[in-house]
């Protein structure tokens, strides 16, 4: 195995500084790996020229002893719904197949400014509507942990940010950016055995992120360790004058304590009982129970809590999602950008045809349903109702985090991320898109409802040799504690995200 | 509708069958005022009129995916100031909504507006209604809502190639939509409301009100009903391009509806366009299409809070309504009342002066610097002579090159009896055509001085008496009015320069009737 | 080396990867568990029998408003079932609960200074349009109802 892949970002940049490894060499190897692992279909587009140029610039800076910071020369991949100037950004849809943004998303420009090397754009479900990365113009993304990658017994990578998760899991890059609306970062992170962070809503800028549900979307971060995740977070977080939904408070960099400095005796862990829902696999349940136990052994107080409106979340999500989709997709008419059909008889005909040709079935159905809910006669009954239940869900969290009685409070919630390990593609594809999302997003959606931060960390492998992960959630802007606890758990379980490569020890 | 074309050939619609007093007309206005700001409502692109095609367009205005709105503080302040000046209640929290429909000049497929919770509500406007030939009266109209919203782009229709060309410079320009209650009854009332609104907005400097640039757009909702009945079906009239058109369009539409009903027809809820050239309203669509805008809260803009606390100051993100209310200048009605009180003007005079801000400025500055001239003389000259001249030439007062100093000089000379009123009127024309030459120079150049010399006048009078024997005879018989013919003759002989007062005195002396 | 790499990936793994000895025994717990060991049932009404009013006129209206066509019976069924899915929350008690439009409802909305900072980028603005004509966007004539 390539030795440097065992390093975390801090170790990598240290070796750059010492001249042991050059960013250029690393990038070349990464591009090589990407090509060799093409079967995963993690990337929709590699940008080798730009990447090598950035790597070259980084090398020069290290040679001059003037590196930009923690991410200088670090390889990153970006989900293809983030605008990258001059590089096609397609959302894996025919509608935007030829769209070349004239600007960079804030997340991308901050990464570039920090000297990161952007390898390319990663695969996703079309317009982020899915939980498998199977509904893409460019074909599905495969999970590197699959027992076999050929034939029909391969496993899904999860979605909708499957490409980004896959790229990090495969060791092609050190970190990747995804997006998370109902679990789209944590879900593939769970299946691919990497860390997936959904920060607090408003902590990261959405300027340049082509939206799915504006009131819930958050850029997500993939990495192979909590420490790497924090390095990326520190680079991209903070208010943005281009995005009115960013939190105005200036961002202070997180620094996580060393493992042996972490004291869990003051930490209160909550186990929300509703998260044990129908379909939770015995192995995930076992994992959940064990980690709760580990925390208790270390001195944390662990108790069961109740978030009574949890199960309503998928229904609320489906309504709000479809309504926002109906609205957000209204701009795709082929006039200013995007696929343009040939029927020029009237705007109505042109728009209708462009949209029929440019959108897949999933997108079209959501647009129709969303418009139905937004009709004046239906608005109160569906949309407003969903928003009221949304408040109930958010208040459930608030009640446990900020309960009036000190004794009733918890700091961190521990739950499963996905209900099972990664499903086989052929089983997953048999379900409707709605059922796919409904089942897999059960534990991840509520965090988006409330805007609170959540992180998925891989714990161990299942009997089938596939990653099993757990999720931690905390109150808004509490990433410091959330990631500290995550880091502690990570150290206890010692999960190796690149274990799948062990077989290739001799060849690499 | 052929019969209606025949009817249109006569300019006055016939209403033979309906006694007009049984029917009421109801008019409600919707005004879109473009806020005068340097940049757009949600993006940082410019707002200048006439910019090159698609150059005042930010990525957000073109709905490029991934772009987000950021609110312009100046627009919020302008909205609040306007709301306060119109007596509204400014809401502490207001929200933005998306209004969905498809059109080529609406790149997002929705307009960002405020429907559920607007910036301000419940205002009121009380304004004078000036109808030629009728006495001035005051009318009140309630302002239901003042909301901030985006303008759409412009599409030019190319009928030849069957396509539309779209320019997005206007897309995203900041608008205030003012929704008035259907409290008006006539076209004149509507025009008067808009005139008053323009005066207010210009004083606040929140809108240029240049209707020819589209900075102020007026749509009218019109219906008729018989006294005692509920409001009738209304039509919406759009495309009214000038203040004058407001009265014409609404009057036309009211009459059209009355006629339609008289002929047994029904009014349909439709949108009609004002055809200024042919002076009529035309249906815009032949089928009224069912529309549902599917309003939805704009998720990228959290609620807008403003500070209602008295005595507060504005901060970067929190605009203080109290601080803005101090900045509101004197409003037109207050000025009128002040003029009436301070200068003992008739209300009609005050209305005319306030209606023409430049005229008002002239009045105030001349009054101040020329205390010897009575106020009455000043405003009479300004209104009866200066304003009349401008109107005759179809000239806007602000476009006339004559300034206050010139008028002051004319009045000074007039008051000092150096020139007479005729000469003063001539000077207006001369000044307008020779903007660089001063009054004194013109008087000398064109020999406009009054003739006051007694000998000269006597000679002229004698000449006039000789020329008008018949009038002399009649006057001496006792018809005092016949004197004017002789006076007129003197004026003619003196090329309008004789001092009329002295002339009259002289003639009276010369023509003393022999017997009583 | 690269070819070997490819080969490895395309081979079926006859033997499982050498599993690292688990330091942790996931079957052994020290404390009584706080994790519920049986699923917590969530009671939601069965709405699959709900009558969904979707007459042809409503469908036409929806298609026109969305400018997306319901091109098959299956699409109509999906729409109906989505509506039934949404009906499942109707019974939840929400009197006196205000809608949560945004989690940032307490924050002051950011206000921008009135300065010209954008625009003047016509080339870029037009760059993604498939059809333009002398700096205009081009669109077919509008307000013509769709063919039924």
Automatic annotation (TrEMBL), chain A:
Coiled coil: none annotated. It comes from the Eukaryota. InterPro entries: Amidase (IPR000120), Amidase_dom (IPR023631), AS_sf (IPR036928), GatA (IPR004412). Pfam families: Amidase (PF01425). One of its GO terms (biological process) is mitochondrial translation. GO terms for molecular function: ATP binding; glutaminyl-tRNA synthase (glutamine-hydrolyzing) activity. Residues 26-483 form the Amidase domain. It is found in: Mitochondrion. Keywords: ATP-binding, Ligase, Mitochondrion, Nucleotide-binding, Protein biosynthesis. It catalyses: L-glutamyl-tRNA(Gln) + L-glutamine + ATP + H2O = L-glutaminyl-tRNA(Gln) + L-glutamate + ADP + phosphate + H(+). One of its GO terms (cellular component) is mitochondrion. Its main location: mitochondrion. Belongs to the amidase family. GatA subfamily. This is Glutamyl-tRNA(Gln) amidotransferase subunit A, mitochondrial. The lineage of its organism: Eukaryota, Metazoa, Ecdysozoa, Arthropoda, Hexapoda.
TrEMBL record, chain B:
Its EC number is 6.3.5.-. Pfam families: GatB_N (PF02934), GatB_Yqey (PF02637). The keyword Nucleotide-binding applies. Keywords: ATP-binding, Ligase, Mitochondrion, Nucleotide-binding, Protein biosynthesis. It catalyses: L-glutamyl-tRNA(Gln) + L-glutamine + ATP + H2O = L-glutaminyl-tRNA(Gln) + L-glutamate + ADP + phosphate + H(+); L-aspartyl-tRNA(Asn) + L-glutamine + ATP + H2O = L-asparaginyl-tRNA(Asn) + L-glutamate + ADP + phosphate + 2 H(+). Signal peptide: none annotated. GO terms for biological process: glutaminyl-tRNAGln biosynthesis via transamidation; mitochondrial translation. NCBIfam families: gatB, PRK05477.1-2, PRK05477.1-4. Subunit of the heterotrimeric GatCAB amidotransferase (AdT) complex, composed of A, B and C subunits. Allows the formation of correctly charged Gln-tRNA(Gln) through the transamidation of misacylated Glu-tRNA(Gln) in the mitochondria. The reaction takes place in the presence of glutamine and ATP through an activated gamma-phospho-Glu-tRNA(Gln). This is Glutamyl-tRNA(Gln) amidotransferase subunit B, mitochondrial. It comes from Drosophila ananassae (Fruit fly). The lineage of its organism: Eukaryota, Metazoa, Ecdysozoa, Arthropoda, Hexapoda.
């Amino acid at each position: 195995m390539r030795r440097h892949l065992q390093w975390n970002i801090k170790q990598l940049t240290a070796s750059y500084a010492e001249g042991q490894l050059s960013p250029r060499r690393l990038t070349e190897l990464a591009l090589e790996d990407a090509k060799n692992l093409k079967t995963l279909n993690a990337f929709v587009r590699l940008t080798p020229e730009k990447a090598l140029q950035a790597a070259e610039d980084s090398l020069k800076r290290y040679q001059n002893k003037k590196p930009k910071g923690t991410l200088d020369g670090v390889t990153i991949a970006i989900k293809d719904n983030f605008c990258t100037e001059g590089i096609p950004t397609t959302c894996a849809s025919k509608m935007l197949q030829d769209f070349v943004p004239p600007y960079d998303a804030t997340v991308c420009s901050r990464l570039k400014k920090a000297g990161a090397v952007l390898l390319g754009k990663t695969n996703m479900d079309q317009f982020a509507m899915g939980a498998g990365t199977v509904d893409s113009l460019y074909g599905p993304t495969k999970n590197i942990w699959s027992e076999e990658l050929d034939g029909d017994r391969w496993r899904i990578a999860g979605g909708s940010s499957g490409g980004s998760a896959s790229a990090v899991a495969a060791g092609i890059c050190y970190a990747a950016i995804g997006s998370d609306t109902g679990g789209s970062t944590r879900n593939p992170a769970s299946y691919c055995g990497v860390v997936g962070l959904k920060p607090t809503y408003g902590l990261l800028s959405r300027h340049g992120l082509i939206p799915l549900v504006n009131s819930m979307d958050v850029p997500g971060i993939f990495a192979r360790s909590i420490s790497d995740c924090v390095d990326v977070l520190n680079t991209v977080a903070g208010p943005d004058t281009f995005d009115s939904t960013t939190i105005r408070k200036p961002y202070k960099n997180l620094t996580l304590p060393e493992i042996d400095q972490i004291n869990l005796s003051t930490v209160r862990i909550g186990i929300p009982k509703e998260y044990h829902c129908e379909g939770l696999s015995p192995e995930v349940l076992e994992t959940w129970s064990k980690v709760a136990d580990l925390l208790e052994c270390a001195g944390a107080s662990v108790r069961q809590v109740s978030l009574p409106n949890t199960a309503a979340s998928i229904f609320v999500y489906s309504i709000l999602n479809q309504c926002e989709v109906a609205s957000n997709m209204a701009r795709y008419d082929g006039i200013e950008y995007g696929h343009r059909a040939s029927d020029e008889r009237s705007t109505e005909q042109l728009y209708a045809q462009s949209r029929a040709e440019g959108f897949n079935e999933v997108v079209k159905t959501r647009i129709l349903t969303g418009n139905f809910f937004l009709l004046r006669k239906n608005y109160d009954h569906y949309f407003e109702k969903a928003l009221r239940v949304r408040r109930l869900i958010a208040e459930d969290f608030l009640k446990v985090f900020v309960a009036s009685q000190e004794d009733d409070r918890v700091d961190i919630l521990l739950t499963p991320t996905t209900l099972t390990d990664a499903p086989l593609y052929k089983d997953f594809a048999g379900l409707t898109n709605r059922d796919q999302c409904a089942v897999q997003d059960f534990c991840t959606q509520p965090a988006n409802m409330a805007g609170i931060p959540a992180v998925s960390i891989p714990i161990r492998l299942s009997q089938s040799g596939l990653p099993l992960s757990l999720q931690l959630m905390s109150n808004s802007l509490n990433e410091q504690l959330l990631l500290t606890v995550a880091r502690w758990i990570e150290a206890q379980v010692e999960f190796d995200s690149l274990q799948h490569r062990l077989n290739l020890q001799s060849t690499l | 509708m052929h019969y209606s074309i025949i009817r249109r050939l006569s300019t006055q619609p016939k209403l033979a069958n309906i006694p007009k007093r049984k029917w009421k007309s109801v008019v409600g206005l919707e005004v879109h005022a473009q806020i005068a700001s340097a940049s757009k409502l949600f993006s940082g692109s410019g707002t200048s009129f006439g910019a090159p095609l698609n150059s005042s367009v930010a990525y957000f205005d073109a709905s490029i995916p991934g772009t987000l709105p950021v609110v312009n503080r100046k627009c919020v302040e302008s909205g609040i100031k306007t709301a306060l000046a119109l007596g509204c209640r400014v809401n502490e929290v207001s929200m933005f909504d998306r209004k969905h429909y498809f059109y080529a000049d609406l790149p997002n497929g929705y307009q960002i507006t405020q429907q559920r919770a607007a910036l301000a509500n419940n205002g009121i406007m009380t304004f004078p209604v000036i109808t030629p030939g009728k006495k001035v009266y005051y009318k009140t109209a309630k302002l239901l809502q003042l909301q901030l919203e985006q303008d759409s782009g412009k599409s030019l229709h190319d009928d030849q190639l069957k396509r539309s060309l779209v320019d997005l410079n206007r897309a995203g320009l900041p608008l205030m939509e003012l929704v008035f209650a259907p409290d008006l009854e006539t076209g004149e009332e509507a025009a008067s409301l808009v005139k008053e609104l323009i005066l207010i907005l210009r004083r606040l400097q929140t809108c240029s009100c240049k209707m020819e640039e589209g900075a102020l757009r007026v749509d009218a909702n019109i219906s008729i009903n018989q006294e005692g009945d509920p409001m009738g079906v209304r039509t919406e009239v759009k495309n009214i391009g000038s203040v004058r058109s407001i009265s014409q369009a609404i009057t036309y539409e009211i009459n059209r509806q009355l006629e339609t009903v008289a002929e047994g027809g029904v009014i349909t809820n439709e949108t009609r366009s004002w055809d200024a050239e042919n002076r009529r309203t035309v249906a815009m669509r032949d089928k009224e299409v069912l529309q549902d805008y599917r309003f939805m809260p704009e998720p990228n803009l959290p609620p807008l809070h403003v500070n209602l606390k008295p005595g507060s100051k504005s901060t970067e993100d929190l605009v203080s309504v109290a601080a803005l209310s101090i900045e509101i200048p004197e409003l037109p009605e207050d000025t009128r009342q002040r003029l009436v009180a301070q200068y003992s003007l008739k209300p009609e005079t005050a209305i005319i002066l306030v209606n023409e801000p430049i005229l008002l400025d002239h009045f105030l500055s001349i009054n101040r610097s020329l205390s010897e001239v009575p106020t009455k003389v000043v405003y009479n000259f300004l209104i009866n002579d200066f304003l009349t001249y401008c109107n005759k030439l179809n000239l806007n007062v602000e476009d006339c090159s004559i300034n206050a100093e010139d008028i002051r000089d004319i009045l000074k000379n007039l008051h000092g009896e150096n020139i007479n009123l005729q000469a003063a009127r001539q000077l207006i024309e001369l000044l307008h055509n020779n903007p660089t030459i001063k009054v004194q120079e013109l008087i000398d150049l064109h020999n406009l001085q009054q003739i006051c010399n007694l000998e000269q006048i006597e000679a002229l009078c004698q000449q006039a008496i000789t020329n008008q024997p018949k009038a002399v005879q009649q006057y001496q018989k006792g018809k005092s009015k016949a004197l004017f013919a002789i006076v007129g003759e003197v004026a003619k002989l003196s090329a309008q320069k004789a001092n009329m007062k002295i002339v009259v005195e002289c003639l009276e002396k010369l023509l003393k009737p022999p017997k009583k | 080396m690269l070819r070997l790499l490819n080969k490895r990936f395309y081979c079926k793994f006859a033997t499982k990867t050498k599993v690292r000895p688990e330091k942790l025994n996931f079957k052994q717990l020290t404390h009584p568990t706080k994790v519920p060991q049986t699923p917590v049932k969530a009671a939601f009404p069965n709405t699959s029998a709900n009558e969904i009013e979707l007459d042809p006129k409503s469908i036409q209206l929806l298609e026109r408003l969305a400018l997306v066509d319901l091109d098959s019976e299956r699409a109509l069924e999906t729409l109906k079932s989505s509506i039934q899915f949404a009906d499942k929350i109707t019974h939840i008690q929400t009197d006196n609960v205000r809608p949560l439009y945004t989690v940032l409802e307490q924050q002051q909305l950011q206000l921008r200074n009135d300065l010209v900072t954008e625009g003047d980028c016509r080339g870029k603005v037009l760059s993604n349009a498939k059809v333009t004509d002398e700096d205009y966007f081009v669109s077919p004539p509008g307000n013509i109802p769709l063919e039924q």
